[in-house]
Design brief:
36% of the residues lie in helices and 24% in strands. With 793 residues, it is of the alpha/beta class. It is flat, with a radius of gyration of 33 Å.
């Protein structure tokens, strides 16, 4: 490239190059203009003098920015994207002398040939216009949330699928439903009303009627009924519709002091009618806003259509303003600040809340054949302080949106060679990672990643509730950013549309506690009678494992997916007959094996359950994922019977589980716990059992096989230090070089074992063998032979 400086300046992008200490050593003309440095020349990128870029970063973001620079300089991460406030000194005016611009920052390491960072590149993009546009687009989410939370009457918002979208605490109090309102989100509205009717006379209400979903239909239902206490309730249900038909309903329940008999005579029907008309106006306007948000934020921005974007945003703004006026007239909204969501701050356990929340999205994921995964990094503290309910509402809405917007699996598409059955499924992954810690507060990065697989059919249209979920999530995210109490932290939900999926990311700040509660679980002297749950989508694998553990006198149960496994474990725990051990495959439908482990280890009644994972294909990072999700043992398939037996004995024979120790039980750790691994190839069962017993009592790991074919399979699966072989009746071809044959079947990357010839004749030739042991075996003869070989290595 002849003139890289001229090219960068022509693009008018804000780009800095920093030293590893964070000092600016080069910048484009646009960057120098932003920082208020010497007038740009348009030719060279070098600045007159170096200075700390952090000095133009807003004080609220400076510590986070500097910590990120340090992590990149130390080589801990290669790049990082974040949003920061930049003091635009070069753009200052008399009216705004210290303007702080919201900017997206992309930081990346510039590396030498040895891979070590030598400088850091920083690219900045102004987000001012986007923030102004999103303020109008998100207004309707605020109004709906405020409507439900601040109305004094009981209120339920129903979506187009007939499920509860939102409800307030007043509804639960009125109908004596003793659960948290957020736990009812996603349940059937008809079932909720059926449960509520237990608090009414003759189960006469609330009334649930099916609505007409045809476009242009208008439906309004009203009736009265009495509570068991005798107080009258007036119920009004209003349909919300647009050009596509009914998109949901708003149910209001007004409590009066009059008895039911007097309602018909004294109910202020005119007032109620006027209020319901106003509420109808609200929900219709919000429906229009919802439609505009879906088009403006997800299509116009993605397709770079500025004309259509402005048109849609003006429509959103008009609709949001109309809705605000209507709500203010009905609910005395002047007392409520626009855009503020009230947070209920209290201590909570993050992972327990996630394990409970994930059940709802898991059901939707199963219906749409979406693979759902969870990753909460080890460094994320569990004991936080904040509004757990609203945090879970955001995450659930984002998961639901990512699931509902996922393409349908094309069952007719032929899988490519080597594909697994789940390769066509869209993956939706919830990731929570620490950004940085300051003053006993943790800044968490929370994201939902959607990865679309090839061979998919895109949905024709999004459900009407999906865009509303996204808008509500945006508004709550803004409130969560101010969880510190000073409101100084600004935040928003970042949405990125990619060719193969979408990404939703935001940051939340929580005070936290470092205390950790040690987890213990029951230990067992023997495997006999121990209940065990085997979870695998492969019926043959489940059957084989069940028959295997039955041979060890264990009591197996089976499940073909994570949801069934969780229900079974929970039911058995409630019946005070818990299942202490789970063996699960890593590849499961809907929730994978790691997500199942997460839900088990963070369920209040299942924390003591030990988990062994059998992995079909080991992947980089699996060991870290095992520690993050409380998995005690991790074994690659195929696994030898004795190896699995030893893993089970190790897992349920110790008091500390994997959540309290850094050690993960693997085939390598099992081997390292013993003096040596010995393979005995001998068709004489009595002889081999005696030899194996003598070695095991002296802390040797022993595998016994009766044929050469079984021996070759075992050698592929694990490393052996010593092989004891009696060629008679074991399938070795007469006249072949036995030592060379055995060595040719050693697994790739493993050491060649020492080989002992076992023979009843003391005069047998031991040519090419490493030693000779006489048969019948004696305790001393087998031990001395094996010890001698080990000492010689």
């Amino acid at each position: 490239m002849k003139n890289p400086a001229g090219l960068l300046n022509a693009l008018d992008e804000v780009i800095f190059e920093l030293s590893l200490e964070g000092k600016v050593i080069a910048a484009t003309s646009a960057a120098r203009k932003l920082a208020g440095d010497v007038p740009p020349t348009g030719e060279a990128l070098d600045l007159v003098e170096s200075w700390d870029l952090a000095r133009i970063v807003a004080s609220r973001d400076r510590a986070r920015f500097e910590q990120t620079l340090q992590r990149i300089a130390e080589g801990k991460v290669g790049s990082h994207a974040m949003e920061v406030g930049i003091i635009a000194a070069g753009l200052a005016t008399a009216e705004a002398p210290h303007d702080v611009l919201p900017m997206a920052a992309k930081l990346g390491a510039v590396t030498a040939t040895n891979g070590k960072p030598v400088s850091i590149g920083v690219w900045l993009r102004d987000l001012s216009l986007e923030k102004a546009n999103e303020a109008a687009a998100n207004a309707h989410g605020t109004h709906l949330l405020d409507l439900v939370e601040n109305i004094t009457d009981a209120c339920v918002v129903e979506n187009a699928e007939g499920n509860v979208e939102m409800l307030n605490e007043a509804f639960c109090r009125l109908f004596e439903i003793h659960v948290a309102p957020q736990s009812l989100i996603g349940t059937s509205c008809a079932e909720l009303f059926e449960a509520a009717s237990n608090s009414t006379q003759q189960r006469s209400g609330p009334l649930y009627l099916l609505f007409d979903a045809a476009p242009g239909s208008s439906q309004r239902d009203q009736r009265s009924f009495a509570l068991l206490s005798g107080e009258a309730i007036a119920q009004v249900s209003l349909a919300v519709d647009d050009e596509s038909g009914i998109t949901g309903r708003l149910h209001l329940f007004h409590q009066t002091t009059a008895r039911v008999a007097a309602v018909a005579e004294s109910a202020p029907e005119g007032m109620i009618a006027n209020q319901m008309a106003l509420i109808g106006k609200i929900v219709r306007e919000l429906s229009v806003a919802h439609e505009s948000v879906g088009s403006a934020l997800h299509r116009a921005e993605q397709l770079e259509m500025p004309g259509n974007l402005l048109e849609q945003l003006r429509r959103v703004e008009t609709a949001a303003n109309s809705a605000l006026e209507a709500v203010a007239g009905l609910l005395d909204f002047p007392r409520i600040e626009i855009g503020i969501v009230n947070l209920e701050i209290a201590p909570f356990h993050l992972r327990e809340c996630l394990a409970e929340m994930i059940a709802g999205p898991a059901d939707k994921a199963a219906q749409r054949q979406v693979q759902l995964k969870i990753r909460v990094e080890q460094d994320v503290p569990d004991e936080l302080c904040g509004d757990a309910a609203k945090l879970m509402l955001v995450l659930r809405n984002l998961l639901d949106y990512a699931i509902e917007s996922a393409p349908l699996v094309d069952s007719a598409a032929a899988p490519q060679a080597g594909d697994h059955p789940t390769d066509q499924r869209t993956e939706v992954t919830l990731v929570i990672a620490p950004e940085y810690t300051a003053e006993q507060q943790i800044h968490l990065s929370l994201s939902v990643e959607q990865l679309i697989r090839p061979g998919s059919i895109k949905p024709k249209a999004m459900p009407a509730s999906a865009a509303m979920q996204l808008a509500l999530a945006r508004q709550i995210v803004r409130a969560l950013a101010g969880n510190t109490g000073d409101g100084a932290v600004e935040n928003k939900l970042e949405v990125q549309e990619r060719k193969l999926g979408s990404s939703f990311q935001f940051t939340a700040v929580f005070p936290f506690s470092d205390s950790k509660t040690p987890i213990t679980r029951p230990t067992f002297v023997t495997l006999t009678g121990v209940p065990i749950l085997i979870v695998s989508k492969n019926i043959e694998e489940r059957t084989q494992l069940a028959e295997l553990v039955k041979g060890w006198r264990m009591m197996p149960r089976e499940a073909d997916n994570a949801n069934v496994a969780l229900r079974l474990l929970t039911r058995m725990a409630k019946e005070e007959n818990p299942i202490p051990l789970v063996i699960t495959s890593d590849e499961l439908t809907t929730l994978d094996g790691f997500a199942l482990a997460f839900c088990i280890k963070h369920h209040p009644q299942l924390k003591q359950t030990a988990i062994i994972m059998l992995a079909a294909d080991g992947k980089p990072g699996d060991a870290i994922a095992c520690r993050e999700n409380g998995i005690s043992a991790y074994l690659r398939q195929p696994v030898a019977d004795q190896q699995l037996n030893e893993a089970i004995a190790a897992v349920i024979g110790v008091r500390d589980d994997a959540n309290a120790t850094s050690s993960l039980i693997t085939r390598h750790s099992l081997r390292e716990q013993k003096k040596a691994a010995v393979l005995i190839i001998d068709a004489a069962r009595d002889q081999t059992m005696f030899a194996a017993g003598a070695l095991k009592k002296n802390d040797y790991r022993v595998v016994v096989v009766a044929s050469a074919e079984e021996a070759f399979d075992a050698m592929v699966q694990e490393q052996f230090d010593v092989v004891v072989v009696d060629p008679i009746d074991t399938g070795f071809v007469e006249g072949i070089n036995i030592v060379a044959t055995i060595n040719s079947h050693v697994g790739e990357g493993r050491e060649v074992p020492k080989i002992l010839l076992a023979s009843e004749s003391p005069l047998s030739s031991k040519t090419a063998f490493d030693g000779l042991v006489s048969k019948p075996f004696s305790r001393d003869s087998i031990l001395n032979a094996v010890v001698g070989l080990k000492l010689a290595r």
